Amino acid sequence: MTEFKPLVFSGVQPTGNLHLGNYLGAIRKFVALQDNNDCIYCVVDLHSITAQLVHEDLRGQIRSIAAAFIASGIDPEKHIVFNQSAVPQHAELAWIFNCVARIGWMNRMTQFKDKAGKDRENASLGLLAYPSLMAADILVYRATHVPVGDDQKQHLELTRDIAQKFNIDFMEHIRARGYGVDIVVGEEPIHAYFPPVEPLIGGPAPRVMSLRDGTKKMSKSDPSDLSRINLMDDADTILKKIRKAKTDPDALPSEADGLKGRPEAENLVGIYAALSDRSKDEVLAEFGGQQFSAFKPALADLAVTVLSPITGEMRRLMGDTAHIDAILRKGGERARERAEKTMREVREIIGFLQ
C-alpha cells in the first residue's frame, strides 16, 4: 500500500428523537458523500449508554436511526449501514486506544466537562473514555474522512492524536510486518498504520441552533419540544414550531454580514439556506428587508416540502422492523469482515498471539 484508500465513516447516536439539526448537520451530508465515496454509516449504540445506562426502548431507537438513514437516501446495498454493537472489534480497538491515549487528553474534552457537569466524580468511566471508542469507530476501518459538526472537531483532533501516537510507538513493528504508509506529519516522516483522519465540515448550516435560543445548539435533550423540529413531526407541528420560533424585531438584512449579533435570525436564515441548497447571501438577496412575519411562512413551507417525504418513508420503514433488522444484520456482517482484517493486523503489530 502506497497510500490510504479514501473511506468515509460517521455515526449517529440512538438517543431521543432525531431532529432537523441531525439531518442538516449529519445525515444530509452522508447522503451527498455516498455518490463519490466508499461510505460506512453506523448507529453508535455503544455510545448511547455512556450518559444514560438504561433505555426504555433502545432497539426502537436504533431502528429509528437506521430508518432515517435509509429514508433520507442512503443506499445500504452500495454502502454499509449497521449498528456498532454488532461489530465487537470497535470495543476491542477502543481498549487498545485507552492504553494509547493519556488521561490528560480525556480531561480536556469539553463535551465531557459539559455532560458530567459539576459532579464529575459521579460520571461513568465510559463518559470519560468514549472519545477513545469514537476513535476506534473510525480507525477500525482506517477511514480517511469523517463528516462532523463543528462541535465534534475536538474529538476528531483527539482521534488524530491517538492515531499518531500509535503510529510512532509501533512504527518499527508496522514497517517490519509490511503494513502501513509513509506519510509526513508536520515535518516528521512517519510510517503510519492509521491514517490522519480529515474532518468534512461545511455547508450553510453546519450547526443548527435551538428555535427558542439561537445561542444554544438544537438538542434532543432540551426540555422544550418547541426548541427543535423532529424528523417525525407532521406538517402542522412544523408550521407551529417555526411560527413560534424566537426572533428579533428588526427586518432581515440584505447580506449575511448583517446577521452578526442576531443569533436567532442567523439560525433561521441558515436553516433556509441549508434546506434550499443556497448560501445565506442568496437567501437574503430574496428576503432582505422583509419582516419575519413574511419569512417564517416561507421557511415553514420549505421545511415541510423537504422533510415530509422523509417522515413518510421513516414511518413506513418503522412499520416493517424485520426489514430494518435485516439491513442492519447484513451491514454488520460486512462491517465485521473489514474490522477484523484491521484487528488481525493490529494484534500482530502489538505482538498478541492469535
TrEMBL record:
Molecular functions (GO terms):
ATP binding; tryptophan-tRNA ligase activity
GO BP terms in the entry? tryptophanyl-tRNA aminoacylation
PROSITE patterns in alphabetical order: AA_TRNA_LIGASE_I
Using the UniProt record, give the first listed, main subcellular location: cytoplasm
Instruction: Please provide the record's keywords in A-Z order.
Output: Aminoacyl-tRNA synthetase, ATP-binding, Cytoplasm, Ligase, Nucleotide-binding, Protein biosynthesis
> Top EC class per UniProt?
ligase
Taken from the record, one Pfam family name reads tRNA-synt_1b
* Residues annotated to bind ATP: Q13, P14, T15, G21, N22, G149, D150, D151, V208, K217, M218, S219, K220, S221
For this protein, the Enzyme Commission number is 6.1.1.2
Q: Which CDD domains match?
A: TrpRS_core
Renumbered ranges of motif 'KMSKS' region: 217-221
Q: Does the keyword Coiled coil apply?
A: no
Q: Which reactions is this enzyme annotated as catalysing?
A: tRNA(Trp) + L-tryptophan + ATP = L-tryptophyl-tRNA(Trp) + AMP + diphosphate + H(+)
- Compartment list: Cytoplasm
Q: Position of motif 'HIGH' region?
A: 14-22
The entry marks the following residues as binding L-tryptophan, namely D137
Q: What does this protein do?
A: Catalyzes the attachment of tryptophan to tRNA(Trp).
Describe the protein's quaternary organization and the partners it interacts with.
Homodimer.
Q: Which family does it belong to?
A: Belongs to the class-I aminoacyl-tRNA synthetase family.
HAMAP family the record matches: Trp_tRNA_synth_B
This one is known as Tryptophan--tRNA ligase
